[in-house]
Structures are given as C-alpha cells and as structure tokens.
Write a structure and sequence with these properties.
Two copies of one chain form a homodimer.
Chain A lengths: L1 H10 L3 E8 L5 H14 L4 E9 L4 E5 L2 E5 H4 L5 H12 L16
Keywords (chains A, B): Redox-active center
Protein name (chains A, B): Selenoprotein W-related protein
Chain lengths: 107, 107
C-alpha cells in the first residue's frame, strides 16, 4: 500500500536542483543549509538535489538545468526567501510562500 | 586562470554519491548531515552528492551506482564511521580514515 503511494509520489517530484559551491571558500555549510531549506519547502516538487563541490569562488544554483543564481553575476549570495521565490517560479508558480513572499521581481 | 584550475579539480573528483531518504519519516536532517560528513571527508574524491526524497521508509546510500547501504536490508542506519569506510573502500581504498578507522568488515 505504501509502495503504491510511494511510487505515485516519486512521479510527482519531477524537478531537479543543482548547487555548485567552492570548497576552498568553505561554502559547503551554507550550500547544505540552502539544500535543506529547498527540500523542506518543495518537498513534493523536488525529486533530486545535487551538491557539486567546485572551486574558484563558484556559487551557483540551477533548476532543471537553468541557472537561477550565480554569485559572480549577482554579486553575492541570495537571501533564502529570494532563492525560494526563484525556485518556486520554476517548480510551482501558482504557490504562495507565505508571509515572506512579496513580489520582488522588479527590485 | 581560476577557471583552468577549477576544471582540473573537477576532473579529479570522479565519484558520485546518492542518498535516498523517506520524507514521511523525516530523515532529511540525518541524510543532509551524512551528506556533509561525506563531502567533507572525501572533498577531493566526490564530484556530486545527490539527495533523493522518497517514501515508504527508504534509506539507501549508493556510490557510483552501487548500493552500499540499505536500511531495510541492514536493519537500521549506518554509524557514520562505518559509512565512511564503505565509501572510502570505493573512492580511495588505500586511504586511512584515522583513529576511528578499524577493520570492521568481519563484524
């Protein structure tokens, strides 16, 4: 019984997230924290979240192959609420993220 | 310049780890903790570590596609030292893991 429910739930998690981080910069901890935030908030949407150790100051987040954050381009790290909005827009666009969810796309 | 160094380092991390966990059992936290332990200990060996939300009481760890732990088969979760030995045997077999590294393969 739980097998059947399980299989159905797997199928309903089609989205893939990738986080690339620089080991030399010691960004594993913040990357793993962001991973847990995303896997908690998008429990029914994300089917895979991969951490990629890298170098050279890399910090990037990709959703289904699309880069949604680059530290080098954006000039820093995302606020977790902003990161969740960017992921939400790709995996569950109609969903509200609650009281912290404001339209910041024009800022 | 850092690009070139970065690419070279990526090539030296050929191994892939996958952790499957049951969301209904709330095993994300222990899975993410184990992920961070493995990525810290095998910083130069693991190129990708993927967390897979699942259901039905699943907890499995795979290295390069080989299942090295199954909660259902082994009857529980691995000690972190044991898990590191199992990963080490696949990704860096000649390496010692220090004072906690004893031969427990016969126990």
């Amino acid at each position: 019984m739980s097998r059947i429910i399980g299989d159905n739930m797997e199928n309903s998690r089609p989205h893939k997230v990738d986080i690339h981080y620089c080991t030399g910069c010691r960004w594993l901890l913040r990357s793993a924290w962001m991973a847990q935030e995303l896997l908690t908030t998008f429990e029914d949407e994300i089917g895979e979240l991969t951490l990629h150790p890298g170098s050279g100051g890399i910090f990037e987040v990709h959703v289904n192959g699309e880069r949604i954050w680059s530290r080098k381009e954006m000039g820093g790290f995302p606020e977790i609420t902003r990161l969740k909005q960017l992921v939400r827009d790709r995996v569950s666009p109609d969903r509200s993220l609650g009281h912290s969810d404001r339209n910041t796309s024009n800022t």
